[in-house]
């Protein structure tokens, strides 16, 4: 198995990304970091550096991406995305996951957390990601 050094991986969703992922993972074809970035197989390229510096840079990048996001909502979205991928051969999978997402959103709304977050944004206590 070949290793790609100094990149973070994400699940490719586009058909091109899946095709390239298959070439790399199944057939062991080597691809350059830039080509993998362009086809969506990786989402970030970090410059060559020591392992310690790389880990610090990745951690800083991820913390920046996660800043202001609600961990519970992120974990629920991850669970729902995985459920969709697991059941991708089921023609009703998208409908099932959409219903689950709607239920999760309703539960989240009822919890009062979104109201608290929006109030903090309005008071400029936190910054919105968009």
TrEMBL record:
Q: Which GO terms describe its biological process?
A: fatty acid beta-oxidation
Pfam families listed in its UniProt record: ECH_1
Q: Which UniProt keywords apply?
A: Isomerase, Peroxisome, Signal
What are the transmembrane regions? none
- Where in the cell is the protein located? Peroxisome
Q: Which Gene3D superfamilies match?
A: 2-enoyl-CoA Hydratase, Chain A, domain 1
In the UniProt record, does the keyword Isomerase occur? yes
Which GO molecular function annotations are given, in alphabetical order?
delta(3)-delta(2)-enoyl-CoA isomerase activity
The Gene Ontology CC terms held by the record are: peroxisomal matrix
Signal sequence range:
1-21
Protein name (Swiss-Prot/TrEMBL): Uncharacterized protein
Native source species: Sphagnurus paluster
Q: What taxonomic lineage is listed for the species of origin?
A: Eukaryota, Fungi, Dikarya, Basidiomycota, Agaricomycotina
């Amino acid at each position: 198995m070949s290793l790609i050094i100094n990149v973070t991986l994400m699940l490719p969703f586009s058909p091109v990304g899946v095709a390239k992922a298959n070439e790399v993972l199944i057939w062991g074809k080597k691809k350059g970091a830039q080509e993998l970035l362009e086809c969506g197989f990786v989402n970030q390229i970090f410059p060559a550096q020591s392992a310690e510096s790389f880990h610090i840079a990745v951690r800083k990048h991820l913390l920046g991406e996660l800043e202001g996001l609600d961990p519970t909502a992120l974990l629920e979205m991850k669970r729902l995305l995985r459920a969709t991928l697991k059941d991708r051969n089921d023609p009703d999978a998208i409908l099932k996951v959409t219903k689950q997402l709607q239920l999760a959103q309703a539960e989240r709304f009822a919890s009062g957390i979104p109201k608290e977050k929006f109030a903090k944004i309005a008071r400029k206590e936190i910054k919105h990601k968009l």
